[in-house]
């Protein structure tokens, strides 16, 4: 009877140690993720607006810079004035996705998130392939259409998406969404 009790006690100690290790790892992961998060409910309204403006500015600056570099790369001759145009747009897509993989891998290693048991990984391949193909098509389009025109057409895609949602999916959208799509 006493031997049984001591085995149960050892199991409980091992379980407590394993549980404590898991909690420490979870706490470390939460602390690391907290560095990247902004608690807008605890911050003042001024801080929230400042953060929003900063993020908006940085996103726009990044996208404008990326777009200008894309157009410059695909519409100029190499070497200057005498050579050929850059024709390997799939190399640009591959390079972009490769560095995205490297950066997301570094973030994954730094944050050490726990993997969900309900996640089905292959389902992520559908939007990933769609995104990759749309990027390739965008680069190919830059050979014939300027970057501002490409951006204008991409921003107009909300209207056809809403139309198809209405026709095929029988969805209804509030008037505000229609206004945003037209503007």
Q: Could you please describe the fold and organization of this structure?
A:
This protein is mainly α and 183 residues long. 74% of the residues lie in helices and 2% in strands. It has helices at 2-36, 45-75, 89-111, 125-141, 147-155, 158-169, 175-182, and strands at residues 77-78, 84-85. A hairpin with a 5-residue loop joins strand 1 (77-78) and strand 2 (84-85). Helix 3 (89-111) packs antiparallel against helix 4 (125-141). The radius of gyration is 25 Å and the shape is extended.
List keywords for this structure.
183 residues; mainly alpha; 7 helices; disordered N terminus
Summarize the structure.
By secondary structure, the chain is an all-alpha fold. Helices cover 74% and strands 2% of the residues. The chain has helices at 2-36, 45-75, 89-111, 125-141, 147-155, 158-169, 175-182; strands at 77-78, 84-85.
Compressed to H and E, one letter per element, the order equals HHEEHHHHH
* Poorly predicted segments: 1-8
Number of strands: 2
Strand residues, percent: under 5%
Structural class: mainly alpha
Number of helices: 7
Mean pLDDT rating? 77
Shape: extended
Strand order of the largest sheet: 1-2
Rg, Å, rounded: 25 Å
Q: Main beta sheet, described?
A: 2 strands, antiparallel
**Oligomerization status of the protein chains:** single chain
Fraction of helical residues: over 70%
How far apart, in Å, are the first and last alpha carbons? 79 Å
